[in-house]
Structure formats: C-alpha cells, structure tokens
TrEMBL record:
It comes from the Bacteria. InterPro entries: RHH_8, Ribbon_hlx_hlx. Pfam families: RHH_8. This is CopG family transcriptional regulator.
Length: 140
C-alpha cells in the first residue's frame, strides 16, 4: 500500500474546517480594536495568527508527541485500491493522523469495516456519512 502523507501548510483559499468559539466581551473588544487599528484584516485573521503563534510556540512538544504516538502528520488519503490491497494482504489498518484523513468516496462501508481496525484523527476526517457511521465504534 502506498503512503500518501503530505505536510500541511496554511494556504489562502484552501480547504478549512469551521469551528465556533465563545469569547468574552472584553477579549472580543480587544480583537476588534486591533482590527480597527489595522493590525489584522479581520477577526479571523487575528484568531488564525494567534493559533499559529501558539502552535509554533509548542512545536517541539508537538513533534515529540507525534513521534511518541506514531501519528502521520499532514494529509493521509486512503483510496479504495489501498484498502483492497490491505484486505488482500490480510492486513487491518490502525489509522492515526494529525491533520486531515480522507477515505475515498468509492469506499463502501463494508470494505472500511473489513480493513480499518481503529481510527484516531486529530484534525478532520473526510469520508462518506455511511463510512463514518460504519467506523463509529472504532474511532478514538
């Protein structure tokens, strides 16, 4: 089975995952003031910058944790051919990804259950709703 791991880099207009956060009024006011004074283009720009700064601040601890936990870092795609090859070899996959894991749209829930023993994603999983439902009891 071929390994398709790519390091993710922030890119404008790229695919993103929407999150919702709650902020206090004073924190939000500080962000708005910095946006108003031209330090950031908008609230999202401020929040993304703050997150990137914190991720960079803890980069070494993250690298150690990724290695210790055996995570694939970046983007990992599983095609139907990948899973069929694992099935033919009698292998069951333990998928561990920090970033984005994708399971091809043509993967059936039956093939996913037959080949994926466990799945732990820190980030996002893109798969059909049927495959996600079939793997729900295997997600950490």
């Amino acid at each position: 089975m071929t390994s398709t791991v790519h390091e993710l880099r922030p890119r404008p207009g790229g695919e993103t995952e929407k999150i919702t956060i709650n902020l206090g009024h004073v924190d939000l006011g500080h962000i708005d003031l910095l946006v108003q004074d031209g330090f950031y283009a908008n609230r999202t720009d401020f929040i993304r910058t703050a997150i990137r700064n914190q991720v960079e601040r803890h980069a070494e601890a993250t690298r150690q944790s990724v290695a210790r936990k055996g995570l694939d870092l970046g983007m990992r795609h599983f095609s139907r051919a990948d899973l069929e090859a694992a099935q033919a070899a009698g292998q069951r996959l333990d998928i561990r990804v920090l970033g984005l894991a994708t399971i091809a749209r043509d993967v059936s829930p039956e093939l996913a259950r037959a080949t994926i023993a466990s799945i732990a994603i820190l980030g996002a999983l893109q798969a059909s709703p049927e495959v996600k439902a079939a793997l729900a009891d295997r997600m950490a």
